[in-house]
Amino acid sequence: MYGNILDKNHLVDVIDSFYNEYKKQAPAFGLYFFLSPAVVITDLNVIRDILIKDFDVFTNRGAYHNKESDPLSAQLLSLEDSEWKVLRHKLTPFFSNYKMKMIFRTLLNVSVQTIENLKLENDLQMIDAKDMFLKYTTDVMANIVYGIDMDSKNELSYKFRNMGSILFEYKTYTIFKALCMLYLEKVSKKFGLKLIPSDISEFFLGIVKTTVKYRLQNKIERKDVIDILLKIELENKDGVKLSIEEIAAQCFVFYLYGFETVACTGSFLLYNLAMHLEIQNKLRDEIKMVLWRHENKFTYEAVQEMNYLQMVIDETLRLYPPIFDIVRKSSRKYEIANSDLIIPSNTYVLIPIYSIHRDPDYYFEPEKFNPDRFIDRTKANLHSMAFIPFGSGNRNCIGSQFGLLKLKIALIQLLTNFKILPNEKTPNPLVFDPRKSILTSSTDMWLTFERLLENLELFFAMAWSSISIIFVTLILLLYRWIKKRYSFFKINKFPYVEPTFPFGNLKGAGSKYHANELFQKLYIELKHQGPACGVYFFLTPNVMITDLDVIRDVLIKNFDNFHNRGLYSNERDDPLSSNLFSLEDNEWQHTRMKLTPVFTSAKMKMMFNIIVDIANEMTDELKSKKSLEMIEARDTLIKFTIDVIGMVAFGLHWSAIKDPNSKFHEMALKVFKPDKNFFMKSFFLTTFKSLGRALRMKFFPADVSEFFMTTIKETVDYRLRNNVERNDFMSLMLKMYTEESDEKLTLNQLAAQCFLFTVAGFETSSSTSSFVLYNLAVHQDIQDKLRNDVMNIIAKNNNKVTYEAVNEMKYLQMVIDETLRLYGPVATIVRVSFKDYKILNSDLIIPKGTFTGIPTFAIHYDPEYYPEPEKFDPERFNDENKAKRHPMAFLPFGAGRRNCIGERFGLMQTKIAIIQLICNFKILPNEKTQIPMKFDPTVPTLSPLGGMWLKFEKLK
What is 572-828+860-954's CATH topology? Predict the structure, then answer.
């Protein structure tokens, strides 16, 4: 059934393998596409005969089209005989040099807008070159073909791109349809089988119908494709009169092949320039020199003089021709010259462009990217059919000049503004996407765009004549930029409170107020004005979601649009910052999947007794103290959780409980006791990630980073040298580090995950445990009830604290949940929108790249969900009350796929600590206990001002 094409690779690889096998045996060979025989031509002289000399035999492509039921299929690419010839003749003038000059300025304007949009990207370290080119070519083709001025950021542009890209995908049902059309053409037409999906057809037909109607009614003329086609229709010369559907079909094919093919070529070209910086520099030098000769004016004539640019494009088209083969159909029996081979009538003939372009008979070292192949003297020695990216003869690509011009303009703009570099996500080697009918990479074309400083200097040198004017101008530009930033929510119609420069809505945060208290105040003020509101974090706009249903959409239903946190990471200079919490996209997903097994119930059971032993050590240490009148509970629990992490994660005795000078204790505290510049540094690194990386800035203090990196490296080295295996977190990390795969962890990545497990594991659990003790001290009745419940369950389990016994302690869970409601360690969940997002049942749209926050602290204190929210009442979390509440009204660990991976582990060590303490001590307030609780504004997490001082009284 599959003929010769059953393969998991791209179709071009299959054809290429047969080409190399048979090309020496004859000027042509046969290939079966499913049940259809096709003749593949390998001899260049025969190819020239077919495309030029004997074109009358091979005029048609044999492509399916059906004007009646599938009007967009009846376009220039598929039309046949005289119908094709007349229409081609009518359309040819649109692609003349004269027309190219006329549309040059339009192309230039779109390219300038593309560069400006690119400069607005938060992170130029990771740019998908193909996506960028698709946006550019979409905007160009929408303008040139349909006369629509478009911006790649709007929804219509996205719809154009999406619908165009779908048509180049191989899918099972499209292959099935193609087979029906190939073998049962008349039946397919009779039953109205469509090549173009109905929704796509209706969309593009609708665009043309609306545009044509408006132009005819208002007598509007534009120098675009629709205009040319309208003139053909109105003039009715040579008996050619186009229907509105035929006009739409021609517009459609020009758009379709003008946006995807150029985008693929452009992305492949940038890839090769990134991989060959010497060629990139040479090309940039030529561009500069030619523009200098034209007084730095970007003109049509200047572009035509850039010979090396043409050579680079030609070499890219040689290696990656977007249309990798030419298909023709014989109209009669045809004898191949100088052979006994005869091509029967109505047989498909295929010319394998890709294989010819990579044939070592014509190109020395064909896999190598070498633009010098296309120097005039070298080209002169090349057979004319050895390079045919646009076909040849009467039916070559009608829009080749136009395609080259828009590609050149984009490349000139990019290379005069950026240096293109590979990065860790750049595909190498390139693999073609087998799901696509054209040549395109199977992965996104990730490249780094580095701004060229010299362009900035040139701009200032040409624009201003004195330092004072430059300074004033920069101040004005800064003012405009700030004003624009502070207009974000007004423009996007979100309710908001007027910001104060430079603090935004957080004036006093970190000094007078805790940031969460300010967020809560804004939440109360703006909650009833819509499902979301705007908050300025210094100069950065953040959308705060206040509606619980929308929160569920963001965290769960539409997770794909909010899967990243937008945090700063810099693996090169600050390796510990590239941890699971800050990783993005596939890197996060892969790491999360690998780490999940360490937090299963089975793993929790394995760790349980270790944690109990350390909790006993903590209670013994407390009992040994001379006085228990003044105990800093939070510090006690930090030492406990540090020792737990050391043992269950790394198999190390960190001895924080017994050693008052523990280095681990000192360094762990430093992470969550940042310096006074923490908020400003966080703002800067979040807002200007690329600049932060360029300046090699670090999020974590250097001594903290060095200490943990050294500790982890020594542990890794010891285990690998001594073949140490343990069922702990480090063993799992080592498997990911030593595995033989492309997805293995580097040592820096391993260290980052271990570091996160350490600091997150000790901070959240110690914070929660200490707040539980505080609440129990202030509410003795609840403490007594909890102690009785815990002791009764332990008694039922042979007076042993077991994993099963702890899971029976429902009231303990209720106490912890109520504590997490009041003092959740993470007070705001942050996400970044991957693309524009319309909030359900509202007119609000969250723009792409916008920080989006879920204010868990404010929600947990909302009287709408929790009456008397300041009151500590564990009964809020009995089964009956929980069932009445919206699931998003309680989010201490987040929700959805990016919730806290260590939730179960954190709760388990918290429960064990509380059980051991209340079974051995009565917890009481003392004169240093804060009542009511006040938070330390200088600490980003919720931390009691002045410490958590409590009195411990031994139980008899």
Answer: Cytochrome p450 (1.10.630)
